[in-house]
Amino acid sequence: MYDIVIIGAGVIGCAVARELSKYNANVLVLDKNEDVCAGTSKANSAIIHSGYDAKNGTLKAQFNVRGNAMMDDLCRDLDVPFKRIGSLTICTDESQIADLEKLKERGEQNGVPGLKILNREELLEIEPHIADGVVAALYAPTAGIICPFKLTIALAENACENGVRFHLMTEVTKIEKADEGWKVTTNHGEYLTKTIVNAAGVYADEMNNMVSENKLKIIPRRGDYILLDRTAQGYVRHTVFQLPTELGKGVLVTPTVHGNTIIGPTAFDIDDKESTATTASAIAQVTEKSAISIKGLPTRQVITSFAGLRAREAGKDFILGEAEDAEGFFNCAGIQSPGLSSAPAIGAYIADLIKEKLTLSEKEDFVATRKDILDPSKLSLEERNELIKKEPAYGTIVCRCESVTEGEIIDAIRRPLGARSLDGVKRRVRAGMGRCQGGFCSPKVMDILVREWGLSMQDITKSGGDSHIVIGRTKDGDE
Fold first, then answer.
1. Cβ of 479: how many Cβ atoms within 10 Å?
2. Cα 51 to Cα 68: distance, rounded to the nearest angstrom
3. Residue 412 and residue 474: Cα distance in Å, rounded?
4. pLDDT digits (tens, 9 = 90+) for 45-100
5. Which residues are within 8 A (CB) of 206 and not within 5 positions of it... i.e. 6 or more apart?
6. In whole angstroms, what is the distance from residue 143 CA to residue 130 CA?
7. What is the β-pairing status of strands 27-30 and 2-7?
8. Residue 84: helix, strand or coil by DSSP?
9. pLDDT at site 477
10. Which of 73, 203, 218, 479 has its CA 20 to 30 A from that of 332?
11. Is the pLDDT of residue 475 over 80?
12. What is the pLDDT of residues 95-130, one digit of tens each?
């Protein structure tokens, strides 16, 4: 029997797992996908919000501000790229400055430091391409940008190193009470556990509704984005938001930690929890609305578009903690924005609840740090030459757009919870994320996956499941 089963290996589930790995407990993470960070966590704005937007007294406000404050130490310990570049929330009419003042007051009550209203002249000094119609903005210096893939994978790897088990491609189909806790039925068998953490993203309502009379309703909200090539780097220096509405913070424009520029999202409430296809009309909407904030955006340098789903719950706030009528079942539901920003604080909070519930003791040998995959481009020429002498694979460039070497890809595959698909490699080392979007490097990445895992080319997938790339040979006979 497990002490804790966590359903969902997104950023919330992995944050909880990493916190629980500090204690002497038997912890298991289940996810229906072939990799961690394969759901909502892989497709978002990659923003660490300051915390001014959430209404005072809500869980969103509390955990956003707390999670933001935890991010520097966490990213240092786990070797995750994170930059505090600050955010600007713009208005385009003098009458809206009062709305900015209200946001500033709300943020100050939430505990957000350094908030300031900037006039147009002050804005132009720090953001020269601000749109002509912008008259003022709320500046939040503690806002930042992060790599959501790197954060989620780092949390998972560190949890794994500290004894947490991960069973991927394992879909939960039923949850029911057992004599000493819960029985979790999956497509790969049954698991007995004392407690459950429900971090199932857009499926969190279905998990909750199996065990509780307090029914939840998750409404997937699709957000479409476009990503610009690195040649646009520097055009925007801060995260630029528009005034928030009921549908969110509008279309934003922001740099990424990797030097690209991301624009989006849209906000469409849909029924299908797997529908992440973009549409021409949605992408056109992103481009059109971005011009409200930034003028002359080089949108002809788009290298890809994508969409993600936000887990919007009808109550519009996070749902955290033990279900009232299901002892030992802990919800992390309705985690939409600012979920990424709140993840470290949510992980610590849920782990504390379970620690008290199960009377867990702390480990004496917990390993708090983790090193990311070595990036040879950050080494001096002498260091890189020495590395290549020892490990020749670091001298072979596989992905030209992102200058990713074979050595990095091998490391991504051999690490704890190593990559098994093209997307798994892409999220870890960015092979395929450049201008050609994998058009040239994918065959070589597939060759490496085949060699490292002892598979056939037909076994390799884009993202697990039925996403096979090669379905057969064009010619039969001897090679």
1. 4
2. 8
3. 31
4. 999 999 999 999 999 999 999 999 999 999 999 999 999 999 999 999 999 999 99
5. 200, 218
6. 18
7. parallel
8. coil
9. 57
10. 73
11. no
12. 999 999 999 999 999 999 999 999 999 999 999 999
Q: Is 179 exposed, middle or buried, given 0-12, 13-18 or 19+ CB atoms closer than 10 A? A: exposed
pLDDT, greater one: 475 or 226? 226
167-199 pLDDT tens trace: 999 999 999 999 989 999 999 999 999 999 999
- How far is residue 137's CA from residue 277's CA, in Å, rounded to a whole number? 33
Please name the residues in contact with 105: beta carbons below 8 A apart, sequence gap of 6 or more: none
d(CA 178, CA 97): 57
Confidence of residue 145 (pLDDT cuts 50, 70, 90): very high
Distance, CA of 394 to chain centre? 28
Predicted pLDDT at 62: 98
- Burial of 241 per CB tally in 10 Å (0-12, 13-18, 19+): buried
Domain boundaries of the chain, sorted by first residue? 84-143+221-271+278-308, 376-459
Closest CA relative to residue 278, chosen from 289, 262, 265: 265
**Is 402:229 a contact under the CB 8 Å cutoff?**
no
State the DSSP H helix or E strand holding residue 36, giving kind and residue range, or none if neither: none
- Taking the domain 84-143+221-271+278-308, which CATH number applies? 3.30.9.10
- pLDDT-derived band at 474 (thresholds 50, 70, 90) equals confident
Q: What is the pLDDT of residues 275-295, one digit of tens each?
A: 889 999 999 999 999 999 999
User: 192 near 180, Cβ under 8 Å?
Assistant: yes
Q: Is 49 considered catalytic here?
A: yes
Residue with tokens 């806002």, as numbered in its chain: 143
Amino acid at 117: I
Distances (CA, A) of 279 to 219, 255, 282: 20, 23, 5
Is residue 198 helix, strand or coil?
A: strand
> For residues 130 and 123, is the Cβ–Cβ distance under 8 A?
yes
Catalytic residue selected from 49, 129, 258, 468:
49
CA distances from 36 to 3, 40, 319 (A): 21, 11, 22
What is the number of other CB atoms lying within 10 angstroms of the CB of residue 284?
11
Token digits for 464?
A: 């697990």
